[in-house]
Structures are given as C-alpha cells and as structure tokens.
UniProtKB/TrEMBL annotation:
Organism: Mesobacillus campisalis
Keywords: Ligase
Keyword Transcription regulation assigned: no
PANTHER family the UniProt entry points to: BLR5969 PROTEIN
InterPro entries noted in UniProt: AMP-bd_C_sf (IPR045851), AMP-dep_Lig_C (IPR028154), ANL_N_sf (IPR042099)
Domain AMP-dependent ligase C-terminal: 339-428
Name by which UniProt lists this protein: Phenylacetate--CoA ligase
Entry annotated with the keyword Ligase: yes
GO MF, one annotated term: ligase activity
Pfam families the UniProt entry points to: AMP-binding_C_2
Amino acid sequence: MSEEEIKDHQEELLCKQLKYVYRNSQLYRKKFEESGAFPEDIQTIENFQKLPIFMDKAIERTSQQESTDRFGHPFGMHLCSSPDEIVFTGTTSGTSGVPTFTYTFTRADIEFLNRYIRHMLNYGGIHAGERLLFSHALGIYATSSILFGVRSQGVLPIDVDVRAGSKSILQYAKMAGPTAAMMTPSLAEHLIHKAAELGTDVRNLGLQAIFTVGEIGVGVPKIKKRIEESYGCRIYDYLGELGFSCDSDEYHGIHCVAPDLNLFPLDLIDPETKTPLAIYNGVIGERVTTELNLKGLPRIRYATGDVIQVFTDECSGCGFSGKRVKFVGRSDDMLIVKGANVYPSAIKKVVSNFIPDVTGELRIVLNNPPPRVVPPLQIKLEYGSHYDKSRLCVLEEKIKNALHTEARLTPDIIWCEPGTLEKSLTKTPLFEKNY
C-alpha cells in the first residue's frame, strides 16, 4: 500500500474501533461525552487528534481500582469484553507505582498479535522446528505474551526465568542448543562477562539472532557492536508487536510494521503541554497509543510517557520506506538542569563512546525528587578495568566536554571501580535515588 492507502485503511479501522469502545466501555463512553464528541464525529486521524488525552498511567490505575471495587476484576473500567473472555493478562513492571494490567487480551487478540511476532522471527531467520532461549521475568509480566507468538511460529521457547540467575541461563542454553534468544540488552551484555568467568564464550552458544526489548542499549552503537561481535550474530531491537530494527550493521531505529494494529507513530504530543505535534522527519514527542483491532482492553488516546523521535525518510540500511522511531526516554525520567531538558538515554549514549576507558555502567545521582536538579548533576561512572587511574582527570575532562557539547550538561563525575555498579538481569536502573 502507499502511504495514502495505509492512512485510509487506518481511518476505516479507527472509525469502527471508536464505535466499538463507546458501546462496550463505561470509561470510554464517559470520555467521549466529557469531550463533547461522539464516535460518528470522528472520520479522520486529524479529527481524532483534536480529542483530549483519554488515558495515562494514573487514569489507568484509577480505572482498575474502580473495576476491582465494583466488579471484582482488576482490568479497569475501559475493559470492552467480558472478563470471562480474557485468556492472558500481563502487567507493567510497577517500578514507578502500582502495576497496571495493561496487556490484557482475548483469544482473538492473541491470535492477531501473534502475526507480528512471526513476522519478526521470519525476518531474523528463525523458523519452525528451531528453539529459542527466552529469558525475561516470567509470569504476570507483559513479555510473557510474546511466548504465544513464538509458539505459533512452531518455535520451541526454552523459557528460563531471568531470576534463576545467569549461570542457570547459560546452562540451559548450552543443554538446549537454541538458535535464537530473547532478552534485555543488559542481560545480553552480562552473559558475555559471566560466560568468560565460567571459562567459556557466548559465541559457543551458536545463536543466529538475538531479539532485545525494554532498554535503549541496542541504539548505542558501541553496545550493539559489542553484543553482535561477542555472540557472532545479528541483534534486533523490538517494541512489542509494533516494530523491530533491520538487518543492518548500523542502528536505524524501530521500523514501524503494524499500521493495522496501532496509530503508532502518527499520534505525538508535546511531553510538557500535551498538545498535538505535526509528524515530520526528526520530530520528537511523547507517544500516544491507539489500538485499532484489539477487543479486550484496547488503549485509546493513551499517553504512554515514552518520548520518541520519528523518522519519515527511507531507511539507509535496508530501504524500508515506512516510518521509523528511536527511543529518547521517558517523560517522567526527564531532568531539568539549568533550564535544559536532559534525558538519561542521551547521557548513556555519550558515555558509551568512551568504552573501553569506561565500562559503560553509570548511575545518575538524584538527591532531590526530579525533574528539577540543583546543579551540578552528579554521575557515577565505572572506569575500565585496564585504565590507568592516574589519568582519570584527563578522561573526566574529555567526558565532561562531550556531555556539554552533546547533552548541554556539565556534571560532577564520581569514579567507581569496575563491577561496583550492579547490573540488573532485567532492566538496569539509571538512577540512584537518595531522597
């Protein structure tokens, strides 16, 4: 389809979905009525973007508390199906508050979503009859929904809970002989070092592809290169079912391959004012999600808190002509230092350029609640294991200059010995909160 045909198709799906949620959800019906609009008034994406934000994390928590109190289920007042039709529910991590049952699906939803996981596995060359090491936190977590798609491809997941520890993960990988793996970039990096401690090499696992989610790591050139060279295979960064990165030496962002699932990334708002932003090459804004085909717990005009950069030009790595995005940070992670907006991801990218003089591990020290920081911002960094400590003042000056140029930031650097900043096997925290 051309861009115009895709947009026409999305608008057709949007009109149907808005009527569906209006009929079936008390919350969405209330949101429409409060805005003074009705589903039949919305015929275009531009019309739709004039509506106020319907949901965010705080509204979702209130919604699920109300449904628990009134109906005895935790899925929220925006549930559009019967609770009896739900076959999977997965929560957010809860790191910023009470977990939410955001990823709640009917059987039809699961079957619809499975197509995107199969597409990604096919692109990575992983086919029926093969095995895949799946190492995330298992159970009531969003990532567990991916297992349905893996199995629907005819691929056998070797699902080892990340909380079992790196030694167990490597042991089961060695025993099962998977050809692919799914994990966070942090875990992929950690296993490189853990395998070396155990007298082996991750390259011996024989992986043909690694699919990572949940962190910015793969978007940092040195991290991508280190993982790919260590394992001897391509690493693909993905964002749920919405898209994945291409088979290229350089990172060109998440390629948006699911226009029939979501309006992503066409709906962006200013992270501070919450006003709509026009889509053009390089625009940065907060992602608003609207799911066009899901029937259980679809999100409609949901402000995600994810700040992304959208690219509309053709991918120079693979020729993909659709839209691509790069993750910038979380709106609630944004810091304001001397009036400048600073995202942790920008700091991490700059610091990673100094590997191996530094390990790449860092913590941003917060002595007061964000976003405003009383300068100077403090950053803990690990120096490299072979770096001459007597030259740290020289390295510190170089890093400060780079941060000043690229992130508009001149921090105080606190040096730490290699290995003292603990790496998480799930999502490695970037903040040290002392308040």
